[in-house]
């Protein structure tokens, strides 16, 4: 079987450049799975049936797709899959803007953008309502001749997207190597415990004691805060770590399953396929086709 390497993409952004805008029409997607140092907003239209892979997220898109990625380690690709469109349009904006607390983006008017950029470390997919809100600006961005006004127009796109509801993260936190966050101190303590002990058996009684609640009250509290019951959450964390190990190491699938807290290989294979849409070996093969680091 052909071995695919990940290439770390070297973007056209140079020195003091802020934006690189590529607006193109094509009949197929051929670029391999890759990651890169700079941030990226990628818009695709007329591409129903294309498969979009971001980290350990694997989805088939509809006519329109808009994704923001702000992690240098998060692999991503749009693959042709079953798309038969003869007129695919892809607008890719790569940008290099400091988002630290001491920068302009640490000031009040930019806080929604900064929060969105933080979420996008896992890949952030926007709903159709958000796409329609910024479509005009995306559509004309590559034709703005003046660099200053192009940056202003792009900042408007980011700001409008940061105000939209319904955006969802794609990769799991454990795959994307993103630190656990939560507004609730109780839940944060529990999440940190799970992250540090996911490879071991974790009991409800342990976690409810950490949270200082009865098991039944804690179960309701956890579901309210995370949208998942406890067992689902633990499985997703384990699968994220397993997916990362499949990509980053040459360990056997059996070794990885046991290292990530699954005590039964066939059970691991079954759950992985159900959640990820492919077997662990297929997942590894997909990521080891030409991986580009740019």
Which features characterize this protein?
294 residues, alpha+beta, three-stranded parallel beta sheet, disordered N terminus
Helix and strand arrangement:
Elements: E1 7-9, E2 19-26, E3 34-36, E4 39-45, E5 51-54, E6 57-60, E7 64-69, E8 76-79, E9 88-95, H1 111-119, E10 124-125, H2 128-140, H3 147-162, E11 168-169, H4 173-176, H5 185-197, H6 204-211, H7 215-226, H8 230-248, H9 253-259, H10 265-276, H11 280-287, E12 292-293
Parallel strand pairs: 1-3, 1-12, 3-12
Antiparallel strand pairs: 2-9, 4-7, 4-9, 5-6, 5-8, 7-10, 10-11
Helix pairs in contact: 1-3, 2-3, 5-6, 6-7
Structure summary:
This protein is α+β, with helices and mostly antiparallel strands and about 290 residues long.
Radius of gyration over alpha carbons? Answer: 20 Å
Number of helices: 11
Bin the helical content.
40-55%
Please list the strands of the largest sheet in the order they lie side by side. Answer: 2-9-4-7-10-11
Structural class: alpha+beta
The overall average pLDDT, rounded, is: 89
Helix and strand run: EEEEEEEEEHEHHEHHHHHHHHE
Uncertain spans: 1-9
User: How would you sum up the major sheet?
Assistant: 6 strands, antiparallel
Residues in β-strands, percent: 15-25%
| Number of distinct beta strands | 12
Distance between the termini: 24 Å
General form = globular
């Amino acid at each position: 079987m052909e071995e695919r390497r990940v290439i770390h993409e070297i973007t056209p952004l140079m020195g003091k450049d802020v934006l690189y805008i590529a607006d193109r029409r094509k009949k197929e997607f051929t670029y391999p799975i890759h990651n890169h140092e700079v941030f990226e907003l990628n818009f695709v239209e007329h591409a129903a049936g294309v498969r979009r892979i971001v980290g350990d997220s694997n989805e088939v898109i509809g006519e329109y797709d808009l994704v923001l990625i702000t992690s240098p380690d998060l692999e991503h690709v749009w693959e042709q899959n079953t798309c038969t469109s003869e007129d695919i349009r892809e607008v890719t904006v790569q940008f290099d803007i400091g988002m630290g607390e001491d920068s302009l983006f640490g000031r009040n008017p930019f806080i929604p953008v900064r929060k969105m950029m933080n979420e996008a470390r896992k890949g952030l997919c926007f709903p159709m309502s958000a796409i329609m809100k910024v479509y005009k600006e995306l559509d004309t961005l590559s034709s703005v001749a003046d660099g200053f006004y192009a940056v202003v127009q792009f900042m408007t796109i980011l700001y409008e997207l940061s105000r939209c509801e319904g955006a969802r993260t794609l990769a799991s936190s454990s795959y994307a190597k993103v630190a656990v966050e939560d507004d609730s101190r109780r839940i944060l303590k529990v999440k940190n415990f799970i992250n540090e002990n996911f490879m071991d058996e974790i009991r409800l009684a342990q976690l409810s004691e950490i949270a200082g609640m009865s098991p039944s009250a804690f179960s309701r509290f956890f579901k309210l805060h995370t949208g998942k019951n406890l067992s689902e959450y633990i499985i997703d964390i384990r699968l994220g770590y397993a997916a990362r190990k499949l990509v980053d190491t040459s360990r056997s699938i059996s070794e990885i399953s046991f290292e990530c807290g699954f005590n039964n290989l066939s059970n691991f294979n079954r759950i992985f396929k159900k959640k990820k849409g492919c077997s662990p070996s297929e997942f590894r093969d997909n990521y080891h086709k030409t991986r580009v680091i740019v």
